[in-house]
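Title: Prediction job returns without error message
Component: structure pipeline
Severity: low
Priority: P3
Assignee: unassigned

Description:
Job completed but the reporter wants confirmation the result is attached to the right record. Sequence as submitted:
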Amino acid sequence: MRKIIGTLGAIALVCASGAVSAKDVMLGYSSVDLSYPFAAAIAKGFQDAAKQAGVKTVVFDAKGNVQKQANDIDDLIAQKVDGIAIMPLDSTGAQGWVDRASAKDIPTVGVASEIGDPHKRPIKQVYEKLAALVTQDG
């Protein structure tokens, strides 16, 4: 299941990026902490799916630090990647990250977590600036 989630995230970003060919595409992934087996499996699935599609990737490990994850997202935006997948440490803070990426026309996929303040938006209501939300829940 974990590999499927990572694969779906990569595929969603490739489709949303609108790049002319796969070799033109660079996707970024920001994970909560790659020392967690679940997060590591999703990162591997993301990289494997992208490689299979001939797409380049850059993967950042926030190592459990919200500020590092925010900086990682800013780095991906500065690199002008074609899409960003985020497994956020802080769903409320992640909304701002998605907003910044969206302002630069970079599609973003939320992975295994809601984006936005859960007290202001029902769990089933996906944040409108996301290209997709990929979870293992129905």
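Comment from assignee: result matches the submitted record. The first strand starts at residue 26 and ends at 31.
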